[in-house]
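Hi support team,

I've been running sequence recovery on a batch of backbones for a student project. Most finish fine, but this one hangs at about 90% for roughly twenty minutes before it completes. I'm not sure whether the input is malformed or the queue is just slow. I've pasted the structure tokens below so you can try to reproduce it. Let me know if you need the job ID as well.

Thanks,
M.K.
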């Protein structure tokens, strides 16, 4: 299901035309997925460590990205700069975090769902655009990042429609920066706290990412990191 289809399902939910929160194969997007995952983990007291896998996230909606970041950290700001004017701007989002169709103080209660659980992030160079921004923003809020430095993609895009109704995308002078006013293309170089050995197969020319799924080694890394904090 494409971007329009995702929007349609959420429109139906907020209009009362569907009762369940959109989540499933091909619909619901990142908002439905992170809402499902956080609520499921919150109900299991035996789960102490949560891993957000962004290793192959090639980008998408900044709105969905900030929803995820807000739900995990409470951080709701998006930062950008204009390369023509050298001026920076901050956009502060407000989210219906509990998806009850109302913006109120109950949304902030969602921020306590993962209280007492450690959160880590898997990231690789394959993460691009929002898939590269999100590990950086999460890292800036104190989350432990594992893998390799994430990909870049600081440039924003314009979405325009021509006289025939066809959509066009083009680059614009705005670039994404961190809260410390550093371009994400620069910040990505220092975002990884624990770098994994991801060797390249000399014959095939491909990188071996199996270390990302060595759960025993990851558990040791995460335990050691959070036990020393």
């Amino acid at each position: 299901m494409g971007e329009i289809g995702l929007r349609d399902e959420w429109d139906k939910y907020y209009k009362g035309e569907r009762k369940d929160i959109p989540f499933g194969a091909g619909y619901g997007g990142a908002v439905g997925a992170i809402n499902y995952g956080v609520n499921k983990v919150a109900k299991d007291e035996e789960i102490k460590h949560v891993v957000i896998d962004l290793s192959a996230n090639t980008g998408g909606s900044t709105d969905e990205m900030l929803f995820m970041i807000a739900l995990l950290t409470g951080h709701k700001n998006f930062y950008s700069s204009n390369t023509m004017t050298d001026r920076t701007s901050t956009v502060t989002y407000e989210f219906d975090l509990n998806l009850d169709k109302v913006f109120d103080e109950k949304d902030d209660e969602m921020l306590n769902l993962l209280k007492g659980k450690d959160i880590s992030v898997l990231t690789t160079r394959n993460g691009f655009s929002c898939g590269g921004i999100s590990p950086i923003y999460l890292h800036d809020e104190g989350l432990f990042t594992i893998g390799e430095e994430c990909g870049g993609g600081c440039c924003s895009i314009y979405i325009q429609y021509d006289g025939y109704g066809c959509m066009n995308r083009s680059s614009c002078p705005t670039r994404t920066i961190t809260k410390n006013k550093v371009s994400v293309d620069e910040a990505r170089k220092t975002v990884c706290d624990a770098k994994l050995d991801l060797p390249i197969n000399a014959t095939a020319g491909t990188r071996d990412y199996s270390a990302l799924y060595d759960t025993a080694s990851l558990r040791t890394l995460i335990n050691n990191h959070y036990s020393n904090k």
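--
Follow-up from support: It reproduced on our side and the slowdown came from queue contention, not your input. The beta strands are 49-53, 77-82, 88-92, 118-123, 144-147, 155-161, 167-177, 194-195. No action needed from you.
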